[in-house]
Amino acid sequence: MPANKKLLILPGDGIGPEVMREVRRIIDWMDRRRSVTFEITEGLVGGAALDATGSPCPDQTVAAAAAADAVLFGSVGGPKWDKLPFDKRPELGILRLRKDLGLFANLRPAVVLDALIDASALRPELVRGLDIMIVRETTGGIYFGEPRGIHVNEQGKRVGIDTEIYSEDEIARVARVAFDLARKRRNKVTSVEKANVMQSGRLWRAVVGEVGAAEYPDVELEHMYADNCAMQLASRPKQFDVVLGGNLFGDVLSDLAAALTGSLGMLPSATIGALQSDGRRNALYEPIHGSAPDIAGKGIANPSAQILSFAMLLRLSFGMDEDAALIEQAVEKVLGGGLRTADIMAPGMARVGTTV
Ligand code: ATP
Ligand code: MG
């Protein structure tokens, strides 16, 4: 008997708990279908944790996350907590988890399902069959480099400072994540930076090239300036397989790629940590949408992104590729059958039901 997989579920706030309930129904179905493979713990995070414990990310949650094989996260935040001081914000819940678990690589697939093409924001010929994976470095780069801050210079004028710092180890480890993913996909990595104007970009290009040549000679590697990549994503998106970028460029490009799919309620994501000596790595999976307080509690939220985040977890953390594919196909089948939540309804389409 293989050891049970330890899964920590953190529903959070807003629509988090209601879309997570749909995942629990899938897990129940999987449990009934065969011997139990999950050991599930549910924990508190975000506003829900603040209300119960005074902290948006209690130590108990961090400890449970570190002990788990994977974390399934909902979403945090809402108007109820908006007026709190910065160090009490529900959003700190996810930030602390990322930091304490060392989650340095954010994976965001941008996939357009055929069934959804009618609801897509862009021309169908552009995005039909789109399947891109954006890999973004999340713990380094310009969001964290020192010095940073707003100072007053000798002329009495304010000066804003951010510093982009990347070490070769930081670049190499996230590059390996991108190359490993490419091997399971279409075998191509596009690495983006601004090596023409930034020193950290020059190093980024050099290190990704070295890792590729030494460890992944079978994977096609292409270097692209980030601005050009933005233009190419908007005009010829299907040339891309895995796109690799630092914290800032990865942030911008992953939102651009998400916009191509035209469906916030459909997109999952993963944030993963270093490969440990026992072959495990910390990983947290969450939908890219937020807590959507405007629709929370109404039973109209699209649970697909949360469900697809669970499928991504099964594939990447538990190696359960078949189960992941089954869930993805089920989502596509439901949409193909015409069942839609409001966020993915094409103009003029009849409302069939409120929940998928
Ligand atoms: P964040 O919390 O990441 O800052 P945000 O506040 O910018 O996110 P969301 O909470 O994702 O944004 O909501 C943006 C809009 O999209 C809202 O109008 C919300 O109702 C809608 N939305 C988000 N997720 C879903 C979903 N799963 N189903 C339907 N509508 C959604
Ligand atoms: Mg929000």
UniProtKB/TrEMBL annotation:
Q: Binding residues for NAD(+), per the UniProt record?
A: 78-91, 290-302
Q: Which Pfam families match?
A: Iso_dh (PF00180)
Query: Per the database record, which ranges form the Isopropylmalate dehydrogenase-like domain?
Result: 6-356
Query: Which pathway does the UniProt entry assign to this protein?
Result: Amino-acid biosynthesis; L-leucine biosynthesis; L-leucine from 3-methyl-2-oxobutanoate: step 3/4
The record lists substrate as bound by R98, R108, R136, D227
Any single GO molecular-function term of the entry would be: 3-isopropylmalate dehydrogenase activity
Amino-acid biosynthesis: present as a keyword of the record? Answer: yes
Q: Does the keyword Cytoplasm apply?
A: yes
SMART domains, per the entry: Iso_dh
What Enzyme Commission number(s) does the record list for this chain? 1.1.1.85
Give the note describing cofactor binding and stoichiometry. Answer: Binds 1 Mg(2+) or Mn(2+) ion per subunit.
Residues bound to Mg(2+): D227, D251, D255
Q: What protein family is recorded?
A: Belongs to the isocitrate and isopropylmalate dehydrogenases family. LeuB type 1 subfamily.
What protein am I looking at? 3-isopropylmalate dehydrogenase
Q: Which organism is it from?
A: Falsiroseomonas frigidaquae
Q: Provide the gene name from the record.
A: leuB
